[in-house]
Structures are given as structure tokens and as C-alpha cells.
Records
---
Amino acid sequence: MNIIIPIILGLIPLTQFFVKGWLFFGVSLITFIIGYNLFKRSSSKEFLSYSISILLSQTICTLFNISNTAIFVYLLITAILFFIGSLDLKIVDNLKNFLKENKVNLKEWEFEMCYFGYGQVQAKEDIEHFESAVIGIGKEGIAFNVKMAKNNEFKKFIKYNEINDYGMYKKQKKQDYYGYAPKIRDMFLPSKDITTLHKPYLDTYILTIQTGEEIYSFYENVKIIENLVKIIEENINGGNV
């Protein structure tokens, strides 16, 4: 996606020259939701450009004294959230670049943010040690990129014929009310996790992939895990091995 689009959408603070109060808040919030959904499948450049454009536009409004403190704080927080989103998407960009270096066609690939753990999950407490990661699945195989210590990353590409076993299974996890950290989408859209806050335990779904003696585990929302398993099955059963 061209960065011109996020830059243009990021000019929404300039509408304060014509729109004031709650009307501006409503219009800008709708624009930010649209922007998030447009750029969440793109690269970190779109989110970063969006963040910078919002911040610069609001700075202009502040210099011309057409804004107020509440709006400034609101837009500053929004710009920061999109900046954080750009950092989250950087790991996706790095995985895509890694795959391109390995001559992989990314046309029909799907990428999902998730949590990664090395080895089989024996107890629910093991999930607490999972690292932030991104997993990608396409016709050629499966790839993932994991954030490591000191800003390092571990990337791996697995062809379907290298997979000995895979599957999805469930673990129960005790609800952690105080450790709940929403994703950036939850700042703009209702969180899926809100509906589970009354439950003492959560059903955690994990995708496990085994290659030789290596076992890789991925933890995320059940719908995402189910979709990943479905794609793996389609490619393995479809002969892409």
C-alpha cells in the first residue's frame, strides 16, 4: 500500500479548522478505525506514516490555537498507539523480507501475530513463557519470526514435507485480571477478551508443529489457531509437500 494514503488520512486533525467539539471527536474516531483496518495487514511503514501525519497535523492546529488540551492529549495518545502498532508490524516485515530472500512468493500468504513456545506445552504455566511472534502460512510452507532478547529475532521456514506431525489442542489457563494487556485493535474496537472476564479459567488453544525432533508451539485466539490448522491441512492434503 502506498504511504500517501496513511499520510492523507493522518491529516484529519486539520479538520478542526472547520469542525469542533464532539463532532470532530466522532469524525476523527471513525477515521482512525477505518485507518487501522486499512493498514493492519500492510507494513509498519503505513502505521508509522499515519502516526507521524496525525502528530504533525495536530502540531499545526496547536500553533494556530484552534485546538484545546483535551483534543491534543487524545490525538497524541492515538499517534502513540499507531506508532506502537508500527513496532508490532516490524516483526512481520522482517519475516516477509526473510521469505523473499528465500525466493518465496508471498502472494497468497497469511500472517498472524501470536505467541511462540519451543517444545511441547506440558502445563498451562508454560504459556506464560511464550514469546511474541508472527506466523505465516502459504502454499510453500510455514514460517515464523520470534522476538528474542536484545532485539534479536529467530526466523525459520518449514516446508510441508518437513512436518512430521501437527495439531491443535486445548489447555485450561487461570484467568489473569491484572495482567490483561489488550492489543492495539482493542483501543478502537471491542475486545474479544471482554466476554471472558467473568470466567475463572480460560480455554487456551495451541497449534503444535513437529519437524524431526523439534517441536514448535503457537498460542493465539481459537479462531486464528483453527484457521492456521485448516490451511495446513489443505496444503498437506492437497499435495503441497
---
Amino acid sequence: MIVDVPLEFYKYFAENPERAALEYLSIPAGATNPFFRNTEAVEEALHKGMSVPQIIDEDTYMITEDGVCHDDAARYMHIDLAINRDGVGISMCRAVGYEPKMMRVMGEEEYSEIEVPIIAFDFVARLKPRVEYGEREMAFDAILALIEELQFRRQYNLADGLITFDRFQSHHMISSVRSLGIPTGLLSVDATTSLLKVDFTRQDMIRKIGVPREPSAAMGALRDALYEHRLILPQMSMADQSRTWLEKEIDESQFDPDKQKVVKIEGGSDDVIQSVAGSVFNCVNNATDMGFMPDVDEVEEDDHFSGRVGMSLEDEYINEDGYIEDDYEPDIEEATDLPLNTMLGH
């Protein structure tokens, strides 16, 4: 991009062009330490499913005529609610096949070949409050109605899949979705301290497994799927003339070495990429038998990671926005002794 800079602002652009572009032109300059460095692989993966239509009308939340399921594959979703509730990133995917990958599975010293999923998205959407309906912020009831439509009238198999939300203020939504018979829980893409496994032997239908501190686990799963060309994405709305919202947010994602996690650049957005990363993470952890789910009979009850709506997390670990604070540490020894890179296929 070439920009004519007014002379009176020249020194600011000369000293710090990224900051000046953001402050004076409202142009995020892109990540200075990008998490997604293989731009060719990202571009190829994003365009692989361009012939697949978008089935969600982002203005009305209505599902189009193309949005009817013709298979029984389990669906996986992650719903990312913006802190100020002015938008929602929402996506749904499924495993459409598997391909071999060399990795070290649980209990083994050597690497072996296992199957990892090829993941196809039914939709990726960025929803905003419907001003014509008088909405000033996102309405939870509208999201719940969309989920009901997908499950019961459009025949998408969410009952055998998993839906996750990113905020502890989503407890009401989780209870409502579980009442539909759909496994549902909380997943923090910002600070991934655990993964969710669908477990129909439990009353809440999920088991939450603590993992070693790895805040970038979900984003890492997305990057692996992109780089290994295991991702098929549908048409998406455009953030600007040349990029979809997902492409824009990939460009704006950078790795913070101090926090050891992926963050958005100042002035950027991450609703869509966090939704896509969460959906991929849920699919990878449930659509394949990678050997890291212990037998139910061998697992001791662990209230700390029970996954229930009334889970016993200490209040001081949850901030006013409903997120787990960065200094929250799970009891790793009691949770699991499996290295996280094994779960993600590294």
C-alpha cells in the first residue's frame, strides 16, 4: 500500500510507521511478529472452498435455502462473543475425511502414523446487532434460535458434536443449549488451559481435560490445519476490498513471546479467527481417536475441571469481562500427564 503522507505528519511516520498508520490513518499495519507466517499456505487453504456458498445471512441471521444438511457427520462450533457484545464470531465445521500424520501418541516413545481430520466448514460468519430490530447489543436469544434451526429444521448433527462458548458470562446460553440435547461447554481460545471431550456417560455430556499451560493451543490447531492443507472454508463476507474477515484477522494475529500466546494487533479484531480456531480445536479433539482420552472407569472425579455449569473455579480467577485471568494455573498433575503437542499432532 502506498500512502501520501502530509508533510506535518512526516516525522511521526518516519519514526514509527506502523503506529502512525494506525493513529492517523486508522490502518492496522499488520502483525510485527505474525503467528501465521506461511502466507502461501494460508492463501491456498482460504481459497480451496470458495465455491461453497455462505449459508448464513449476516444481516438477518437467516439460513439460506442452501443451508440443509445431507449427511450425518457430527458438527463442531465455537461462538466468540465480543467483550462489549457488539458482535459475534460464529462458525461450524465437520470432519470430511482423514489423512495420515506422523506423531507421538500417548504412552509411546516413538512417533507413529495416525489419522488427522480434513475439516470442512459449513459456514463462517460475523454477526452484528440488528439495528432494524432495535438491538443495541447481541441478543442471546437470536443465537439460540439459530442453533435450534440448524439442529432441528436443517438437520445438522450437533447432538453428536460440540458447541463451545468463550466467556463465563455465557452460562445462561450453555444451559439453554444443553437443554436441547447438545454437548456444550466453555473454551478459552485466548488462554487454552483445557480441552473438551464429548462424553455421553456424563450428565453434562462433556469431560473437561486439563492440559499443561499452552495458551496458543487452539490457534496452533488452526495453523496446523491451514499449513497442512486440511481446511476447506466457504465463502465469507469481506472486511475490505481484498480480504475476508478471516484473512484480515490472520494478518493481524501476532505472537506475544512474553504472554506466550497469540494476540491481535492494536486496533485489530479477532472475533472470526477465534471462532474458527475454536471450532477446529473441538473437531480435532473429538473427530479422531488420538488416544488421549482416558477410559471413563479409570478417571477420578475432578470438580476443578468437571465442565459443569456450576464448576468450582475460584472467583478471583475470573475477571469482570468473564474471562479466566492469565495467571490462572490448572493442577496439571491431577488433570493429565499427556504433553499438549501430542494432542495437536506435533
---
Amino acid sequence: MKRQIIASILVFTFILSGVVAFANKTSATEKYSTVASIDIKTLDAYYKKDTLMLPLRKIAEDVLEYELTWNGEEKSVEIYKGAQWTKITIDKNSYFFARVAPFELSKAPELTNSLTYVPMEFFSEVLKYNISLEGDTLIIKEPSQEIEKIIFNGFIKDIDENAKRVLVLGNGTNEHSNYIWLTKTEESEIVNTKGENIPFENLKIGTKVIVTMPEMVAMSYPAQGALVKIVVLEEESFEVGTKEIKNEENNVIINYPEVKGIKKQLTQDYLNQRIEKFANSIGENDLYKDLDLNYEITLIDDNKISFLFKGKFKIDGFEEEKYLVKSLNLDLNSTNEINFENYFKEDEASQEKLHEILDKAAKENGLEGFEAEGVFIYFWEGNVVVYYWPLDDSVEMPVELYIPIEEIEDIINDNFGEHPII
């Protein structure tokens, strides 16, 4: 004989003279357990036309146990709990949740009697609780939907030691990729593939990682959120450090990368030789005066590494500064350079398709078509970025065309020569 036992445990905690009742209740007949029942008369809630405006701190902090931080200069509030993080700004009807683009609710957040108020649907549409009004009682139930767990492969692009955060860029190999600052919290998990804990201080720029996205992120660029989980791919990773070239005669400073920790020492040596040769070719060019050149890593995946260099310089006889943009892409298998000329197949059909794609992309960027004197590439997530200086002397920065690699897989090369032998 089957026996069915339905156990219900109801715990009431009264706050503000018995105003707020919390319930941790499990029932076979309820879909969501009740978190709180609140008499709205005690909240100083009010209606703005047809929208019920609720005090944010009294509910999010006192009831739902979020932490709130007020920024008086921005008139904004940061709201976070564990891996969840979002931000609102007074009088700005713009809200966001996870990777969803900013959206509007019925009303913007507003200040009333020095308290921040939000529309009732903020708690359902942003914080994802099941919220309803029954008479004068506000019913809040546990989150109303299962949050999709988003995981992507990428690499650590930068580290902020003081703020305990890392900048991670996706490598384009996953459907979900991202570019995001992740801040370490007490709940953050940083492990290797064996599940062993890794101290935050051991993370290095260039390290390959698998990232679990936070449920809430700031829709800035890069995005921002709490660090939920990072799996460090130790066996596949290497570090990228920085070296410097100075040419005091021309007042030139060039920061350039150095790879460290590659398992094959010969491969590491050849990569660094190519990088240093590239940097020296710029530093020894007498055209560049007062040059301050820095770089960023735009991609690290299993087969290649891509660097983008940017800076400003002067030319003798001209007062205005000029922009310098250069890139260096290296094949990790052969250590050879990947450029516009060898990345795409040379047969007539491939070249015809390539120029059709570039011409279309240029027109979508407001240009008449694809016309260039010199063409270069770098890689960003799942794109090859084709950049060039158009035939217009007044243009200060190059045109950049982002071409999804999945759209051109049939016209690109995957072999860039043999690895050098001692």
C-alpha cells in the first residue's frame, strides 16, 4: 500500500510589530512556496496612475535579503545577492536581467520622501519572483522561472587585483559567448578541471577558462557581474605578460606581449621572436614620433592568438596627432603569422565570395562599397574583423567590418605552414 505523506512546515517571523510574515512552506499542491506576505499599508506604497509603486529597500533588502548600494552622484542603486546583480537609475525607465537587452517597465524608478520606489512588476520582471496583490496583501513567492545556465569558453583578458575581478572574453566557440568583468564574491568558485580550488591570485592574463555566467549582469560594455564559477584549463593555458621598447630619440614607447608557460619551449621561443620582431619594426620606423603604443589580446583559442595594437603619433612637419592601428595574429601550430592574404583561400570562387561579403558589410556601415589601400585582420570572439583605411585622407580611424567566421568557413584556410625545426 502506498502511503503519501504531505509535510508542511510554516515558520512565521514578525518584523515591524508583526507587519511582515515570512513563510517557508512546502506543499504538494503549490507550485511556488511563499516567501512573504506583506500588508501594503505598512510599506507606504502608492499608486501612480494604474501602477503600484513599492519601496525598493523595504522589500528587496529587508524581506528578500538583497544588498543595496546607493550612489548619490549617479542617483543609482546597485542590487545584488550572491551571483545576482543589477542596477537601476532614478527617473530612467531602463531595466535589465541576465543577458537580456535593457527594457522598459510601466514606470521608471523614482525618489519619494528620500526612498527609492519601483513599479511592482520590477520584482517579477527583473528579480524574477512571483508577485501578486490580494486585497491589501502583497504576496511574494519564490522565483517564478528556472534561470537558464549559460556557460561559455574564453580567456582572461585582464585582471583587476584591487577590485578582485577578471575581464573574460569569449573565444567564439560557444553559442553563448560574452565580454564581461566578473567580480569575486564569497560564493565564487574557482577550480581546475579536477575540481581543486585555485586562489584568485593564481589567475593569469591569457589563462583559458570555462565561465558560468551570473544570472544578473550590468548591460555595460564590457558587461559586469558577479563571478559564479570559473574552471581553469591549466593544461591548455599559458600566460601573456608585457614587455617594453623605448626609442628615446623619437620619443617612442611600445608595450608588446610576451607569452610564457607554453608546454613546448620551441613553440614559445618562435612566437616571442615573431612578436618582438613585429614590435621592433614599429619602434625602428623613423616615421613615428611621440608614439605611445599599447596592445590588447583579442582572441586566444586552441589554434591562434590575436593582438591589436593602438596608439597615437606625430609626423615631422605636422602638428595634429595621427592614429596608429596594427594587428598581429599568430598560428599556435606553426608559429607563423595569419594575415588577410593567407587567411582566405586564393581560388577565384573563394575570392569572389569574399569580396561580395566585404562589399555588403561596407554598405551596411554606410559606405558606397569595399575600397581599400591596405587590408588587415584580427579576431574577436566568433568574428574575423577586417579593417582598412578607406580612400579618403580625412578619415582618422580605419573602417572595421565584423564578419562571422561561421559564414565564411568554406573560404578560409586552416593550415599556415609547418612548425620550424631546430
